[in-house]
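Bug report

Summary: structure tokens for Alpha/beta hydrolase family protein differ between web form and batch submission.
Environment: batch mode, default settings.
Steps: 1) Submit the sequence below via batch. 2) Compare with the web form result.

Sequence submitted:
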Amino acid sequence: MKLLPHRVATPLLSLLVALSWSPPVARGDDGYTPFEGEKTAWHGGFDRYDFVMDEGSLTIAPSRRPEGEGFGVKAADGRGRRCVVVVPKAPAPGNPWSWRGEYWDHEPQAEVELLRRGFHVAYIAADPGKHWDAWYDHLTRRHGLSRKPAFVGMSKGGVNAYDWAAAHPDRVSCIYADNPAIRPEAFAKLADLARHDVALVNVCGSQDFLLERHTLAIEARYHELGGRITVMIKDGPAHHPHSLQDPRPVVDLVAEYARPSSPADRPSFAGDGFAKSHYYAPDGTYVRLEREDTYATCRGPGFVECYDRYDDRTKGPWGLGGMAVIVPKAAAPGKPWVFRAAAIGPDAAVDRALLRAGFHIVIPPLLAQAGPIREQWDELYRTLVARGFSPKPVLEGAGTSAGEAYAWAVANPDKVACVYGENPALRSLMMKGSILDHLEPLAKAGVPLIHACGSLDPWLDSQTRVAERRYGELGGRMTVIVDEGKGHHPTAPRDPKAVVDLILARVDERNRQASESPSHGH
């Protein structure tokens, strides 16, 4: 993609154009001021406006597109920095726009589709710095475009996009990067992008020389940070060709991420001290690309369910360890929830299925060096129930964290729908003595127990089988589902359906019993 030099408009011609330029028309109700100057056509019959930015003063004036330039932009000759805006037929709500800072008009199909959806498309010659800041201010303040543009960056353009976004994470909605590279300085600031909820979409060839140490490194780190990153790896191509012949999978995501957010989008429990991130599995799917006559390995929120996560950063050392809530797309009736006794990983298949069923997943605080503290769990329970959450959550834990779920359930048997453990070890830092010796309160309250275990798990015989025998002797009901040939990790069952169906049935049953109780509502 080497760009050839060309001759730009002379300083005298630029001055004459600037002097003859009419003042901008009045802003519309949404703050938008239309662009003026000489119009030319761009792909699909869209209006294009050219500008030149003075390298020293950063003033921006309309410019005439040089003869023979076509849809592209030839290299500048040092007499001004080239800038371009292409205008949609009708701007979308919020006046979204995409920004490209390298290789203008190379594989422009994504931008043409964005124009059809009401995006403006803008360009400024590389590289990021004060000129880019001035261009951003011109478009947002003078013309009322969105304060969070979407970047389109191919190859070195991806470097530019990541550089500017890392310096201005609060001014970017998303980045579509195509076979990009990223500098170490920008990579080190990915946490800032995740904190500002900047969504990433990377499209790469499977044989691109930048894939392993750039896109795959970005993907791993961003997923770890709770940021949204969708990756499409085209099977077969190298660094070229860029983009997708049918850009709709990418444009769908960009259009979604650029949509203005509203305070109403944030749940009522998540105050200013809560940091938003995202929870999703890094599962991949193999998608047919008809026009490329190949397939792509696709991962991330564009292809799997992605849920909003809110972490309380107001307590604990270094802002860590506070409660976390993962929010379903739509809460089920009664607002059921899982009181999960430990951090959640991407392999939590049962939790993901319960999210799909409308359950919230709630992770209690872990603030003390001694481990979980019952009083903090109690406070969290009271807070959520006061905000409309079900008074009978599912207590859940895997491995030894299941012991903490049991400890709270034993102390609060009337506040539990059921207890679910994955390869559990029933020992607790929250409770003195063996949990196996304290199952009677749960049995008396009729709390169902569910264990999902691998047949090769070392805790199976000494923990689950003992609990199963003792709970039965106490008159309690316990179901054990054994996954043959499976060890301790991953703790989730290979097929979560049987476990999830059982949890849903037990929750419905407990809720029905509570509603039929003579004391219900008194």
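Above is the batch result. After comparison, the two runs are identical; trailing whitespace caused the diff. Confidence is low (pLDDT under 50) at residues 1-25. The chain has two domains: 39-259, 307-516.
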